[in-house]
Structure formats: structure tokens, C-alpha cells
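User: I've been trying to design a sequence by hand for this structure and keep getting stuck. Would you show me what you'd pick, starting by listing the structure so we're on the same page?

Assistant: Good idea, let's start from the same input. This is the structure you sent:
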């Protein structure tokens, strides 16, 4: 008996219909425009969905990229924008959402949120109404990347009523949207992130996906939504076998990240792409997250040929065990300034101070009052600096490159070795997506013939 599985049949049909795409495949956002407008456009034109990486970019840059994407996809094609959690300045989230709504952005990928914020609620409820048959008509879709059940439950629940009331009082949402808010989930889709590149909780897909599917069913039974939340899978997907396992576990869609960073369209330097192309599965490591440095959050990064993860972990350990820069022994202070930073602590603090006096003066006030807070600001500069070095491809500083990446790229490199996709200069995001989906369908068809 022969089994016919086509790539366009994989995943949730409702997911594909809602987003207007052919395949249940998403290219996730990567910060600072690494998930570039070129990447988003090529995916949209080929019948896939991709999210532009807004994290770390100012509103003017984001706006210009939205304009370019909308012009290129004016005749059709799905696309979305990323919204990155901003713990230090939540008002920036609202400013970004206002920009999205001004341009009619309907699809947003929410990343690194541990709690629900007004910006998330405002976007989800924008334009919500009810037709004559009683069906809710949501104008926006919110895809939340999650890896913890307690966070997933927040997104699977209706928007918090206190936040809804606050937004209504401020005139940020309509009375109709506020009244209907408790009848739909905050998220239209959840992407369950296993051990991914960038921010990670180091989760296991085989554990997380079934847990989230059961949680989805519990919340669906409790709230009786008109449309159930779709559950997708991300993190570790770089081969047909990995994609197939996600679909077999019940994922409604898959989301890729690391493998897209080593493509022609990725918005990073050729130097970084040359290095990524040589990675194997063991060539990543964990380091502190610069944007959540004091919270101890982790990111997964490239380890091969660089010192960044070791140096970043050392900075975090020094901050954790010392109360001030001056409390660190002189030899270590000298090593950090000469080898890690390439400049003095004083120079770093002056640059940091100038930035925060414009953007967040309270941070400088706190640093002046608490030496440990000042040390954190100085050390966090290294994380910004190393991302800039990688983006610019400063080869003289390649040992300091900070490149977010998971082992999925290593196994992908193995899979395509000896094929036309071995060289990143021949890797285009939509071709990778199509080849992965076709190979996934082939793999599943082969396994069914063996099993049945």
C-alpha cells in the first residue's frame, strides 16, 4: 500500500487558511533585522509566513522596513512583525504596537514575554467585533513564543480584565472590543520553543509539545472559544526527521530560526555566515542574556571559533559575586578591559551614560547610587558591543562575535553537505523551507510504509 503525503497537507488547515499560506511553516524573527525584509518578502512570495526581527531597532527603522515589505507584497503574501518584551521600558512596546496598527499589521510574533502587558492586549483587541451571527471577528493574530506552561496559560486565557479596563479608560480600545475581550484567547497561536538559538529555557520538544496540547484542551474546554488556539513547534528544527517528529507529536505548524540565519537573505555579515556554515551539532553554548542580565536569563550562541560565551559567563559570575567594579582583583579588571572590551571601564560607562541619559535617566540615577547596578550597566555594554561586531563582520574581533544559534543549524549543515545547499551563498530561505517540507513529507511516507 502506498501513502501519499504532500507537504501542503502537513499541519493545521485552519492555520494555513487564516494566514493565507500554502504551508504550515513559519520563519521566526531574529533580532536587529537578522530576519530581514528580504527574508520576509521571499517567504511571503513563496506561500510561507515569516516575521521581521524588530528587536533592538528603533521605530524609524522598523517603519521603513514595514513600508518595503508592504510594497513588495502588495499583490499578496503573508508577513508579520515581531514584538520583543521590553522589561525596562514597557512604553516602548506600546509605541511599537501603535506603529503596527497605523500600518495595518495583522500578524505579530510575541517573544520573551513572561507576563501579559498592555501592548499585547491592545494589539489583540484592535478592531475586534461581532457579526450578526454572533461570531467574533478578530482583525489581528498574535503568535506567542512560549516554553513554560504557566506562561502558556496566560496566553491561552482571555486578556486580563484589569488591563482591558485600563486600556478602555485611556481610549486605547473600543467599548465593543472591551466587551468581547473575555470571549477569545489572548493568543491566536502558540509556538512551543524547545532548546532554540537566542533566549532559551533549554526545553525538550517531546516533553513540551504534549504538555502544551493538553493545556490547550483544558483551556478550550473551560472557555469554549469559537476557534481553538493552534500549537506550533520551534527550536531544534533543521532536518526532515525533526520536522516530522513535531508534526507527529501534534504540532499545527513548525517554526525555524537558526537555519535561516545562514542564508543569503539573513541580515547579518558574510563573516558570520561563513562561520555558521561550518558548525556541527556540538558547536553551540549557553551564555547570559544581555537584555535580562541581572535576571540570569540564558541565550544559546555559537561557540566554535569564538570566546564570547566563556567571556560572557565570566562577566556574569563576576557581577554575581562582587558588589562593585573596584572589588574585582586588579589582574582580572585589566584582562576584561584589554581583552574583552578593548577599552577602559570609564570609556564604557561614559558611552553607556550618554545613551541612558537620553533614553532612561533613571537607570543612570540607580547606577550612581548602587555600584553593583553600575557594574551591570558596564558589563551589559559588552553584549551590545559583541552583537555589533558580528553584524558588521569585524574580522579582527571575531573571537568576540555574539551569534545567537542553536544546534539545529549544525544538523542542517550535515543534512545538506554535498548538495547544492552546502554553501550559504546558494541558500535562499524559501528554497530551504520548500526542501525541508518536501523531505518531511517523504520521510513520513517512508515511515508509514514500514509501520503499516
Amino acid at each position: 500500500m502506498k501513502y501519499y503525503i504532500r507537504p501542503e497537507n502537513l499541519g493545521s488547515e485552519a492555520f494555513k487558511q487564516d494566514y493565507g499560506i500554502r504551508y504550515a511553516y513559519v520563519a521566526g524573527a531574529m533580532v536587529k533585522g537578522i530576519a530581514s525584509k528580504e527574508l520576509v518578502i521571499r517567504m511571503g512570495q513563496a506561500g510561507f509566513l515569516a516575521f521581521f526581527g524588530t528587536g533592538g531597532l528603533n521605530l524609524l527603522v522598523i517603519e521603513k522596513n514595514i513600508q518595503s515589505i508592504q510594497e513588495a507584497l502588495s499583490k499578496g503574501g503573508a508577513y508579520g512583525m515581531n514584538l520583543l518584551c521590553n522589561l525596562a521600558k514597557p512604553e516602548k512596546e506600546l509605541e511599537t504596537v501603535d506603529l503596527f496598527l497605523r500600518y495595518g499589521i495583522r500578524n505579530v510574533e510575541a517573544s520573551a514575554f513572561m507576563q501579559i502587558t498592555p501592548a499585547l492586549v491592545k494589539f489583540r483587541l484592535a478592531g475586534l467585533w461581532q457579526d450578526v451571527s454572533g461570531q467574533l471577528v478578530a482583525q489581528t493574530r498574535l503568535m506567542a513564543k512560549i516554553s513554560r506552561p504557566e506562561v502558556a496559560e496566560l496566553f491561552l486565557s482571555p486578556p486580563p480584565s484589569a488591563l482591558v479596563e485600563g486600556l478602555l479608560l485611556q481610549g486605547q480600545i473600543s467599548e465593543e472590543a472591551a466587551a468581547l475581550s473575555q470571549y477569545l484567547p489572548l493568543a491566536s497561536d502558540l509556538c512551543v520553543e524547545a532548546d532554540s538559538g537566542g533566549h532559551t529555557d533549554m526545553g525538550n520538544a517531546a516533553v513540551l509539545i504534549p504538555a502544551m496540547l493538553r493545556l490547550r484542551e483544558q483551556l478550550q474546554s473551560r472557555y469554549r472559544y469559537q476557534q481553538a488556539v493552534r500549537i506550533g513547534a520551534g527550536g531544534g528544527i533543521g532536518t526532515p526527521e525533526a520536522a516530522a517528529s513535531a508534526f507527529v507529536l501534534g504540532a499545527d505548524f513548525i517554526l525555524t530560526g537558526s537555519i535561516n540565519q545562514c542564508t543569503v537573505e539573513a541580515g547579518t555579515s558574510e563573516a558570520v555566515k561563513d562561520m555558521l556554515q561550518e558548525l556541527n551539532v556540538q558547536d553551540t553554548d549557553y551564555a547570559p542574556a544581555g537584555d535580562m542580565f541581572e535576571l540570569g536569563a540564558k541565550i544559546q550562541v555559537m561557540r566554535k571559533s569564538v570566546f564570547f560565551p566563556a567571556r560572557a559567563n565570566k562577566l556574569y559570575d563576576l557581577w554575581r559575586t562582587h558588589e562593585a567594579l573596584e572589588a574585582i582583583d586588579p589582574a582580572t579588571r585589566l584582562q576584561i578591559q584589554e581583552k574583552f572590551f578593548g577599552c577602559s571601564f570609564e570609556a564604557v560607562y561614559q558611552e553607556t551614560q550618554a545613551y541612558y541619559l537620553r533614553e532612561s535617566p533613571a537607570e543612570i540615577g540607580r547606577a550612581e547610587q548602587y555600584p553593583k547596578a553600575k557594574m551591570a550597566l558596564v558589563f551589559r555594554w559588552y553584549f551590545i558591543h559583541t552583537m555589533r561586531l558580528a553584524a558588521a563582520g569585524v574580522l579582527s574581533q571575531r573571537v568576540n562575535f555574539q551569534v545567537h544559534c542553536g544546534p539545529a543549524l549544525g544538523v542542517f549543515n550535515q543534512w545538506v553537505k554535498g548538495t547544492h545547499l552546502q554553501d550559504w551563498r546558494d541558500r535562499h530561505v524559501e528554497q530551504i523551507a520548500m526542501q525541508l517540507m518536501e523531505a518531511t513529507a517523504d520521510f513520513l511516507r517512508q515511515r508509514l510504509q514500514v509501520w503499516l
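That's my pick for every position. To get oriented when you compare it with your attempt: The chain has 18 helices and 13 strands. The longest strand covers residues 141-146.
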